[in-house]
Every structure is written in structure tokens, then in C-alpha cells.
């Protein structure tokens, strides 16, 4: 039996290696910093024959998602990647993927959006796609990026909903760290070939996505809404079976650290969720009972798991790397308050917007922010 | 976390700081530890100040920020010494400088190696001039007590069959020549 191999690699390249081991059929792509290195790696793998897929270079992200939608509709396993303004440019076609019930998997390497221009990470880009009907994971490490892409394909193909795998630009995408590669036969066992229930097929002509009247349109939209909610058990099952096969675990819908007896809970996503473990250790050394709750799944928002995991009377410090324009603070805090309302009146929610446009989020800074929030 | 070693490389664009960071992270893995290289990418230009974070730890590394208070600061050019140290270093931190002369920096334990002279002597040149990151890699490995054979294996894995003798010669010379500057009185 073959054993796992440990290599040093960046988060972006880890994503490309996961896509390769998922044995995708089609990769449409257009470059944008900091995502470009994923596309470069996949293009090279196709060129040198390591990956038996069709690479489709396109003239922009709108076309990239259009190509992904078309390829998925004929039954291909499809991957693409983007960042920031590229994701915004895709926005219209993201709805086509979800409404068309096409299980495309895409990485979004989080980057702040213009204006003014920035190259560095915040989460305004993915949060702005909240209402497109995509499932969204947010990853905190290179290894989690690799593991999550494989889990994403499985969930997407089980429920016919596209999945976006988000991770921070530079802090993860350009960070070189050890990466464990499970043997390919284990990955094949976890992620069998894609067998669509339905596909466009010239031998059996049919039409797809016609104009519908309200009595047909409304049930389609209701089904999409219901199925997004129904993906939660599939996300958990995928995480568990991935663990059973590879031994690796990043959490399922949520990931926690020193949470059980916590009085002060840090609540954040992406790479902050890794660095915050160190902030929690600093706060614990200062005598503060601190813990971490990191939603790994942002959409659907894992309400039940969060409500169950939060200790009694906790003060929850939400660190948002985005703005909820028109409201004070960020989007995660707003989501959290909406699920707690009326069922966990013991919980206090406090919120800060931090790390916009790549402002460095050190363990010391986040520990002192949390301390300051305690006195508010 | 207490056993995590943090290091920041300060250099000019084109001096090979990112590759040095990658080599050090790879050496950590080769040495049986976890390693991380996290370069800071600005709007890249040749000659602009650049920096990269490197972490080594016996256990998992969860940090993903730039090194604010590193244990070691590696200065790719002595012209950057003051700016590099003022970006932050722990109280008992050490500085490793590529310089032709030995001069301690403030209160910090300061290691000096003439990486440029070693690169010239080994005839290691790129289009930008002498390749200083290979001798600096050797020097930093020595300061961090990474065994010389691990240092050599890391270079061989990185560039198999490519300039092996010159790379190992330059890195080995720096490994043996890097020295502590006399402390300031």
C-alpha cells in the first residue's frame, strides 16, 4: 500500500495539485493576481501531460465561467479559479451555474476589490457573491485548501450545486508550507468519476434553461434554496469520510479551538482562523478563558452547529475582514446575530472590521483587539 | 508556539530573498521540522525593499502573518541594516548581515558574512550580479545550527544537477566563515 507523501508547496500550487488529483476534464481560465499561479500550474500540467484535461484560455472571467457552465452541462468535471474583480465580473454567470444546477468547483483567492486598487486579501469579493446560490467554503491553511477542493467536488456532484473554495491571497496562496499528498488511489476512492444524472448530448437533443412561467420558475428557485440547506449533512459526511480515508481533518462545517470552557470566543474565517489559535494561547496565558469558532462553511451558514458549539453566556468577538455597507461593522457579525436572535439570548456579539486590503493580522494584534473589545 | 522560531529577511528586489526564504523552509522540513516561507509581495520592482517571513517549528505552524517580532533578521545588504532592524526584532534577537566588514548592530548579537565576495569567488552570477542568496543560505543554516549535510541536501534537491559544485562550494564556505561580530562597548 502506498503512503502519503509530504512536499513543500504554496497554497496556490496545493490547489492545482488537488484539482489534478480530482482528475478534472475541463479547466477554463483567465489570470488575475493572486490566483494566477493556480492557472499557470494547471496549464503547465495539461501541457506536459500530467493532467488529461482540456485547458481553455479565455478573454475574461465572464467567459471563463460561461465555458465552465457549458462544459459542466455536457457532463464534464470542471474547475476554474479567480480573485476579486475577476469574481465580480463573473457574477451574472455564477447564477447560471447554480440555477442550472451545475456542479462546477471554483477557487476564489480572496483579494480586496476596487476602488482604489489593492492586490492583497480581504473578503469583500466572496461575501459580495453571497446571494448567487453557490456553496462557499473558507480555508485556513494550505492543507485545508487541498483537502477542501476534493470535498467540494464530492458535495457539488452529490447535490448539483456549484461550490466556491475561498482562501486568502498571499497569506495562503503564496505561503510555502508542508503539504501532505494522500496516495492517488485513496483520492480516487473518496472521489469517484463524475456520473451526471443528466447532460446535454447531441445524440439526444434537448433544450436547457428555457424561459419559464412563474409556476415553473418559482419551484426551481425553491428547490435551489432547499438543496443549499440540505448540503450541510453532505459537507459533514464528506469531511468525515475524507478523514476516514486520509486521516486528515480541518473541521466540517465549523472548526473550533479551546472552545469548550471559553467565556470569550473569537469568530472569524480564512487564514485568520489559523493565526487566531496563537492569539487564543496568548489570551489564555493572560488568564482570559478564550476560544475560537471558525466557520469553515460560510454558505449555507451552519446555524445549528454554531448555536450548539457556543458556550453558555459567551462574549463572541467577530473579526470581519469585509464591510457590511449600510450597517455598522461586517457581514459575518450580521449573519451570526440573525441566527442567534430569539434562541441564544445569553450570547453577546461584538464586532470589529480588521485586515482590510491585506493589513497584516498578527497574533499579538488580534489578541489585543479581543482584549479591547472585552471592555466595550 | 513557544518553540517556533521566526526569521525575517530584508533585502532589495532582485537579490533572491524569496528563494532564500523557500530554501530555509525546505531545510526545516529536511531537518525533521515544519517550515514556512511567507514572502511579502508588494508592487514588485527591482531594487525596491522586499521582505519575507520564515518560520520553523517542531509542531504545526498556524501563523500566517508577516514576522512582526522575529528572533532573527537576515539583512541581504548592509545598506538596509538600520531599516531592517527598525521594522522589529525580539529583545534577545540576532541579526545576520551580508557585509564586507564585521560591525555589531546596537545591542543585538550580530553575525556577519561577506556573501557577495563568496559568490564572486565561486563565480555565481545572474543577470543582476553576484548570487548572494546561496552563500547566505549556508550562513543562516550555520547560525540556526542546521547541520551542513542538511543544508547541502536542500540545495541539491532544489537544483538537481545544476551548478552543484559551485552552489555547494559557496554555501559551504559561508557556512564555515560566518562569524559573530565583537559586541559594541
Q: Tell me the β content of chain B.
A: 15-25%
Q: Structural class given helices, strands, pairing of chain A?
A: alpha/beta
Assign a percent range to the helix content of chain B: 25-40%
Order of helices and strands of chain A: EHEHEHEHEHEHEEHHEEHEEHEHEH
Number of domains of chain A: 2
> How many runs of DSSP E, i.e. beta strands of chain B?
9
The number of helical elements of chain A comes to: 12
Here the CATH topology of the largest domain in chain A equals Rossmann fold
Q: If helices are DSSP runs of H or I spanning 4 or more residues, what is the number of helices of chain B?
A: 6
Fraction of helical residues of chain A: 40-55%
Report the CATH C-level class of the largest domain in chain A.
Alpha Beta
Shape of chain B: globular
β-strand percent of chain A reads 15-25%
Can you give the mean pLDDT of chain B? 94
CATH architecture of the largest domain in chain A: 3-Layer(aba) Sandwich
Tally of strands of chain A: 14
Give average pLDDT of chain A, whole number: 97
- What is the CATH fold-level name of chain B? Pyruvate-ferredoxin Oxidoreductase, domain 3
Quickly count the domains of chain B.
1
Q: Can you walk me through this structure?
A:
The complex is a heterodimer of chains A (376) and B (185). Chain A is α/β, with parallel strands linked by helices and 376 residues long. Chain A has two domains: 5-246, 3-Layer(aba) Sandwich (Rossmann fold); 254-374, Rossmann fold, CATH 3.40.50.920. Chain A has twelve helices and 14 strands. In chain A, the strands form four sheets. In chain A, strands 4-5-7-6-12 form a five-stranded mixed beta sheet, with helices on both faces. In chain A, helix 2 links the parallel strand 2 and strand 3 (54-57). In chain A, helix 1 packs across helix 2 and helix 6 (142-159) packs across helix 8 (214-246). Chain B is an alpha/beta fold and 185 residues long. Helices cover 34% and strands 24% of the residues of chain B. In chain B, the strands form two sheets. Chain B has a seven-stranded mixed beta sheet. In chain B, helix 3 crosses helix 4 (133-143) and helix 5 (148-158) packs antiparallel against helix 6 (164-177). Chain B is globular, with a radius of gyration of 15 Å. Classes of the chains: A alpha/beta (376), B alpha/beta (185). Chains A and B meet through strand 8, helix 9 and helix 12 of A and helix 1 and strand 2 of B.
Amino acid at each position: 500500500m502506498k503512503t502519503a507523501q509530504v512536499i513543500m508547496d504554496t497554497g496556490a500550487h496545493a490547489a492545482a495539485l488537488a484539482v489534478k488529483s480530482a482528475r478534472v476534464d475541463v479547466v477554463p481560465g483567465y489570470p488575475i493576481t493572486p490566483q494566477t499561479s493556480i492557472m499557470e500550474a494547471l496549464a503547465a500540467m495539461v501541457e506536459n501531460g500530467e493532467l488529461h484535461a482540456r485547458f481553455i484560455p479565455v478573454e475574461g472571467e465572464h467567459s471563463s465561467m460561461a465555458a465552465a457552465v457549458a462544459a459542466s452541462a455536457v457532463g464534464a468535471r470542471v474547475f476554474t479559479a479567480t480573485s476579486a474583480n475577476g469574481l465580480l465580473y463573473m457574477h451574472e454567470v455564477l447564477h447560471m451555474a447554480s440555477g442550472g444546477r451545475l456542479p462546477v468547483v471554483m477557487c476564489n483567492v480572496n483579494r480586496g476589490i476596487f476602488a482604489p486598487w489593492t492586490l492583497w486579501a480581504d473578503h469583500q469579493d466572496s461575501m459580495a457573491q453571497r446571494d448567487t446560490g453557490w456553496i462557499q467554503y473558507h480555508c485556513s491553511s494550505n492543507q485545508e485548501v487541498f483537502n477542501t477542493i476534493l470535498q467540494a467536488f464530492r458535495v457539488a456532484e452529490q447535490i448539483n450545486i456549484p461550490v466556491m473554495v475561498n482562501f486568502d491571497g498571499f497569506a495562503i496562496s503564496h505561503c510555502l508550507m508542508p503539504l501532505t499528498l494522500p496516495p492517488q488511489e485513496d483520492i480516487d476512492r473518496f472521489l469517484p468519476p463524475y456520473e451526471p444524472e443528466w447532460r446535454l448530448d447531441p445524440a439526444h437533443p434537448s433544450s436547457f434553461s428555457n424561459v419559464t412561467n412563474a409556476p415553473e420558475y418559482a419551484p426551481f428557485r425553491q428547490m435551489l434554496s432547499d438543496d443549499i440547506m440540505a448540503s450541510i449533512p453532505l459537507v459533514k459526511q464528506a469531511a468525515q469520510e475524507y478523514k476516514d480515508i486520509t486521516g486528515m481533518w480541518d473541521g466540517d462545517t465549523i472548526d473550533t479551538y479551546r472552545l469548550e470552557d471559553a467565556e470569550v470566543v473569537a469568530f472569524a474565517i480564512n487564514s485568520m482562523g489559523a493565526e487566531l489559535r496563537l492569539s487564543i494561547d496568548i489570551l489564555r496565558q493572560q488568564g482570559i478563558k478564550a476560544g475560537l469558532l471558525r466557520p469553515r462553511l460560510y454558505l449555507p451558514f451552519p446555524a445549528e452547529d454554531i448555536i450548539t458549539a457556543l458556550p453558555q453566556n459567551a462574549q463572541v468577538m467577530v473579526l470581519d475582514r469585509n464591510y457590511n455597507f449600510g450597517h455598522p461593522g461586517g457581514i459575518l457579525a450580521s449573519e451570526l446575530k440573525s441566527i442567534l436572535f430569539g434562541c441564544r439570548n445569553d450570547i453577546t456579539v461584538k464586532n470589529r472590521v480588521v485586515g482590510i486590503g491585506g493589513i497584516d493580522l498578527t497574533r499579538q494584534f488580534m489578541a489585543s483587539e479581543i482584549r479591547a473589545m472585552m471592555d466595550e | 508556539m513557544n518553540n517556533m522560531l521566526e526569521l525575517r529577511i530584508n533585502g532589495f528586489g532582485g537579490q533572491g530573498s524569496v528563494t532564500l526564504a523557500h530554501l530555509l523552509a525546505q531545510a526545516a522540513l529536511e531537518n525533521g521540522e515544519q517550515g514556512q516561507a511567507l514572502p511579502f509581495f508588494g508592487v514588485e520592482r527591482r531594487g525596491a525593499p522586499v521582505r519575507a517571513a520564515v518560520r520553523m517549528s517542531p509542531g504545526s505552524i498556524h501563523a500566517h502573518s508577516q514576522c512582526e517580532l522575529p528572533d532573527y533578521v537576515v539583512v541581504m545588504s548592509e545598506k538596509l541594516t538600520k531599516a531592517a532592524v527598525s521594522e522589529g526584532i525580539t529583545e534577545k534577537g540576532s541579526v545576520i548581515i551580508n557585509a564586507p566588514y564585521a560591525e555589531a548592530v546596537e545591542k543585538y548579537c550580530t553575525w556577519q558574512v561577506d556573501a557577495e565576495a563568496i559568490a564572486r569567488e565561486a563565480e555565481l552570477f545572474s543577470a543582476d550580479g553576484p548570487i548572494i542568496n546561496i552563500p547566505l543560505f549556508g550562513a543562516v543554516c550555520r547560525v540556526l545550527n542546521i547541520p551542513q549535510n542538511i543544508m547541502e541536501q536542500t540545495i541539491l534537491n532544489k537544483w538537481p544537477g545544476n551548478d552543484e559544485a559551485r552552489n555547494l562550494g559557496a554555501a559551504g564556505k559561508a557556512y564555515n566563515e560566518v562569524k559573530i561580530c565583537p559586541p559594541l562597548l
